[in-house]
Amino acid sequence: MAQGLPGVSAEPDAAGTDAAAGTDTEAGAGTGAYAARVQGLTRRFGDRAVLDGADLTIARGEFVALLGRSGSGKSTLLRALAGLDGGTEGGLDVPATVAVAFQEPRLVPWKRVWANVVLGLDTADPRGAADKALAEVGLAERGGAWPLTLSGGEAQRASLARALVRDPGLLLLDEPFSALDALTRITMHRLVLDLWERHRPGVLLVTHDVDEALLLADRVLVLDGGRIAHESRVGTPRPRHRDHPDLTALRATLLARLGVAPEGTA
Amino acid sequence: MPTPSVSTSSAPASPVPTPSGPASSAPASSAGAEVPRGRARPALATLRSSRAALARWISPLVLLVLWQLASSTGLLSERQLPAPSTVGSTALDLIGDGTLTDAITVSVQRAALGFAVGALAGVGLAVLAGLSRLGENAVDPVMQMLRALPHFGLIPLFILWFGIGESPKVALVALGVAFPLYLNTFAGIRGVDGGLAELARTLRLGRAGLVRHIVLPGALPQALVGLRQSLAAAWLALIVAEQVNADSGLGYMINNAREFLRTDVVVLGLAVYAVLGLLTDAAVRLVERRALTWRKGFPV
Ligand SMILES: Nc1ncnc2c1ncn2[C@@H]1O[C@H](COP(=O)(O)OP(=O)(O)OP(=O)(O)O)[C@@H](O)[C@H]1O
Ligand SMILES: [Mg+2]
Fold first, then answer.
1. Is B61 inside a domain boundary?
2. Does A185 touch chain B (CB under 8 A)?
3. How far is B205 from chain A (nearest CA, A)?
4. Are the beta carbons of A13 and A2 closer than 8 angstroms?
């Protein structure tokens, strides 16, 4: 039935839910030591394996950044974790509540901002819950607005509020800041860190921006050849400055890993 | 000079309005830039748009005056085209003796009944076809084939089936209404932004929630375009049906007047059809303004 709907891929609507519920055992994601675990995950498009036995564990409350060249399969991995991809093979263990913020805010244009925030949320006082979440992202005043009247940064903040109001065990962010201007991006980095420290979900942030990864994450991964090809721990205490010597060294390593010569050496 | 209000009200008339897909997936940053951020529209703009609305009445009024002059100077014979004043006084006479009001009541009832049947069928089938591949395979080919049939060519068949009472007229109106609504609603459902459908899955909306919160509201703008087309089709179908055979209603009044060479009554009948069409169109515009406020983001 579902394949008749726009944008709904071949597998039935319930697949994502089943996959999450079926594997979410007592010791599993969200209740055990980790927020999410991927084991030997493979995804083929035609003959090509975009993910080829990828392993990844995100600890509870851990902030992980995922780098990789364009087309390396970052979004594919994230979509698998979000339960949006029924065509993967391998082990996938995610908590019951996974929230996603996409690159575009994907606010439903015909619902007011507050109604977007609590869409699909079962709560006694939706307006109150929405207003609280919107206040956290600094949008207390805009709850009654139509999404199309928000600026790009405001819309992205509303999208974050919508993700966090669900109190997710795992928060998936697919390049959520890439469409924002540099100043707004800096504000958003602070906001995300702030929200993460308060709610402590496990975070997987997909980004192209090495600096962004270094500023925010506990651990930076590089996806290459369908697997996690590199991992760097970032121990520098937050808030971090991008000129911190540790980060400068890590930046060079990561850029080399990504096949880009570090600045000044090209 | 086209003003904002004029362009917004005429925008939905185009066969393909801003589809909900691009509108919703467009980066909000650009939308934020072009949408007036105002709570209340500035008084000046309101004034300007109401003046523009008045300006639109000037040319029709001039035409009416010219017509009146041509008639009173004898340039137009009463037999060909009676003066507006004559049509006006005829209208008063026919309202006085109840002829006109009775005719309008009968015709409006036919249109309303036909519209209700056609709209129910058109929207119902579109939802059925739009929401599942199975439904599409069952419904769409048949609808596409029936669409190719000239509706008015079916009149003899309808008379054979339904006799010459109300049923063939209602059926003809329903047929005219069903197709534009079906086609536009179906296209609207299929045109809903795939990204939003995906969002619905991450929010665990479930299938019913997806249909209710995303698919149907997303299809609404296009469905309303279909509604306007189908209302125009409804009046046209009614006029044709009433010309063919009727013993009551506006069409009957017009046909009767022709036999007695009462051009004024014929013109009056046509004018009433036109006004009815304009009224229903205005009603749909009102619904559009109410239901689609989110598109322009203007305050309610
Ligand atoms: N539905 C699909 N059908 C076929 N190929 C696909 C599909 N989705 C993704 N791919 C392919 O899989 C590869 C990885 O795509 P993915 O979107 O995961 O890349 P990415 O790492 O997120 O890239 P970017 O950084 O550019 O967003 C790409 O080559 C893409 O063409
Ligand atoms: Mg991507």
1. no
2. no
3. 5
4. yes
**Domain membership flag for residue B189:** yes
Does the residue B90 lie in any domain?
Answer: yes
The ipTM estimated for the assembled molecules is 0.83
- Residue B216 is part of a domain; what is its CATH number? 1.10.3720.10
Residues of A in contact with B134 (CB under 8 A): 1, 4
Helix (H), strand (E), coil (C) string for B165-218: CCHHHHHHHHHHHHHHHHHHHHHHHHCCCHHHHHHHHHCCCHHHHHHHHHHHHH
Q: Is A45 in the pocket of ligand 1 (CB under 6 A)?
A: yes
Mutate which of A9, A66, A72, A79 for ligand 1 pocket (most atoms within 8 A of beta carbon): A72
Q: Which residue of A has its CA nearest to B290?
A: A110
Among B176, B293, B294, CA closest to B240 = B176
- In chain A, which residue's Cα lies nearest the Cα of B191? A6
Mean pLDDT, residues A181-192: 90
Does A262 have pLDDT greater than 70?
no
Residue A68 CB–ligand 1 contact under 6 Å: yes
Query: Looking at ligand 1, which residue's alpha carbon is closest to its atom 8?
Result: A76
* pLDDT value, residue A25: 41
Instruction: Provide the domain limits for residue B122.
Output: 85-291
- CB neighbour list of residue B206: distance below 8 Å, 6 or more residues apart: A13
Residue A104 at interface with chain B, using a CB cutoff of 8 Å: yes
Which helix (H) or strand (E) covers residue A170, if one does? Answer: strand A170-174
Q: What is the pLDDT of residue B80?
A: 87
pLDDT at position B79 is: 85
Task: Report, as ranges of residue numbers, the positions in chain B whose pLDDT lies below 50.
Answer: 1-39, 298-300
Residue B46 lies in a domain: no
Residue-level pLDDT at B15 = 39
3-state SS class at A206: strand
Distance of CA B85 to the CA centre of its chain: 29
Ligand nearest to the CA of A69: 1
The predicted model gives A130-154 an average pLDDT of: 94
Q: How far apart are CA A237 and CA A43, in angstroms?
A: 36
The DSSP bridge partners found for residue A232 are A220
Q: What span, in angstroms and rounded, lies between the C-alpha atoms of A232 and A214? A: 9
How high is the pLDDT of residue A265? 54
Q: Do A120 and B204 touch (CB under 8 A)?
A: yes
Instruction: Give the mutation target among A67, A69, A70, A75 for probing the ligand 1 site: most ligand atoms within 8 A of CB.
Output: A75
**Number of domain units in chain B:** 1
Cβ contacts of A1 on chain B, cutoff 8 Å: 131-134, 207
* A23-46 residue pLDDT tens: 444 445 655 678 999 999 999 999
Task: Decide: A75 in ligand 1 pocket, CB within 6 A.
Answer: yes
Give the residue from chain B lying closest to A107, CA to CA: B24
pLDDT in tens, B227-242: 999 999 999 999 999 9
The total number of residues written for chain B in this structure: 300
Token pair, residue B232, equals 């125009």
Q: Identify the pLDDT of residue B245.
A: 76
Alpha-carbon gap, residue B204 to A82, rounded angstroms: 11
